[in-house]
Write a structure and sequence with these properties.
The protein is an alpha/beta fold and about 280 residues long. It folds into two domains: about 60 residues, Orthogonal Bundle (Chemotaxis Receptor Methyltransferase Cher, domain 1), CATH 1.10.155; about 190 residues, Vaccinia Virus protein VP39 (Rossmann fold). It contains nine helices and ten strands. Strands 6-2-1-7-8-10-9 form a seven-stranded mixed beta sheet. Strands 3-5-4 form a three-stranded antiparallel beta sheet. A hairpin with a 2-residue loop joins β9 and β10. The radius of gyration is 20 Å and the shape is globular. The chain starts with 13 loop residues before the first helix and ends with a strand. Bound molecules: S-adenosylmethionine (SAM). The site of S-adenosylmethionine has 24 residues, from loops.
């Protein structure tokens, strides 16, 4: 009997698409709806070729057999890492104005504002908070802002630690902001000034596995923006539970403007803070 196999020059079969989706959900919480079939195929194909495999299914079996190392490479292939400095700045303004008014009386660690940035990509989001805390909101210095940031994609975490960024990352910054926060580097890139590194630490972690990002002390604020839109419904529920676990009661969760968890969890209540919708952790 002839065995039909899908070569990497061919398409990702419906069966392989299903199996990869199941694996991506299980490992990272990610899901590719049917209308993104071609996108998943295009992201996997270079790795199938690089490994000299003859089919997408062979790559699937390689992932099952090889464990963590190849799975981490898969994370790099399938994630959308789009980010830039000052993205949706109004959310940070809201945190440092209206948010602080409700948060500051009951900080998890007295005298310290503890922020977690989940799905931070190459760091533009936590570095923006660091810029604002050091300059626009100087009164925050008295609260020692601490920003712990993590991402599943280790290549992004390495990039964040290097602190060198391409123009795409600072496209929303004014000339004045660029001069204030960045130093020119080779090839039109820019480096973060060292004084803005101090408040931020980076690590690799997985939103659907709380043990990879839980710290000794709880957080006052969690930012998880433009990440959960790519999650399956189960993973989204798990993420909410995990954020509830690391936030102190009364702590606040900010999501991206197109994301919502309204009505999804009894552990958060929806609140209006300035121009933002955010979610306050309820209970003990
Ligand atoms: C579109 S970027 C958003 C970056 C930033 N939060 C922003 O809004 O600019 C999404 C990031 O989420 C990360 N990500 C996806 N699934 C994740 C998971 N299970 N755990 C941690 N990070 C994840 C991706 O690697 C990617 O860097």
């Amino acid at each position: 009997m002839t065995e039909y196999r899908t070569g990497p020059g061919d398409s990702l079969s419906a069966e392989a698409f299903y199996l990869f989706n199941e694996l991506l959900d299980q490992k990272f919480g990610l899901t590719f709806p049917e209308n993104r079939h071609m996108i998943l195929e295009a992201r996997l194909r270079p790795r199938v070729r690089e490994l000299h495999l003859t089919s997408f299914m062979d790559y699937y079996y390689t992932l099952l057999a090889d464990g963590e190392e190849e799975t981490m490479k898969l994370a790099t292939l399938v994630t959308n890492n789009e980010t830039y400095f000052f993205r949706e700045k109004y959310q940070f303004d809201t945190l440092f104005h209206e948010g602080l008014a409700t948060l500051k009386s009951d900080l998890a660690v007295p005298g310290q504002l503890r922020i977690l940035c989940a799905g931070c990509s190459s760091g533009e989001e936590p570095f923006t908070m660091s810029f604002l805390a050091a300059d626009e909101y100087r009164f925050l210095a008295a609260m020692e802002p601490r920003i712990n940031a993590f991402d599943i994609d280790r290549t992004r975490i390495e990039a964040a630690r290097r602190g060198v960024f391409r123009p795409r990352s600072f496209r929303e910054m004014t000339e004045e902001q660029i001069n204030r926060y960045l130093i020119p580097a080779a090839n039109g890139n820019c480096r973060i000034k060292s004084r803005y590194h101090g408040a931020v630490t980076f690590g690799q972690g997985n939103i659907i596995d709380v043990s990879t990002f839980k710290d000794t002390n709880p957080y006052d604020v969690v930012f998880c923006r433009n990440v959960l839109i790519y999650f399956s419904e189960n993973a989204l529920r798990l993420a909410i539970e995990n954020f509830a676990e690391v936030l102190r009661p009364g702590g606040v969760l900010f999501l991206g403007p197109s994301e919502s968890i309204i009505g999804m969890s009894s552990r958060f209540e929806t609140i209006r803070l300035g121009d933002c919708i955010a979610y306050r952790r309820v209970g003990n």
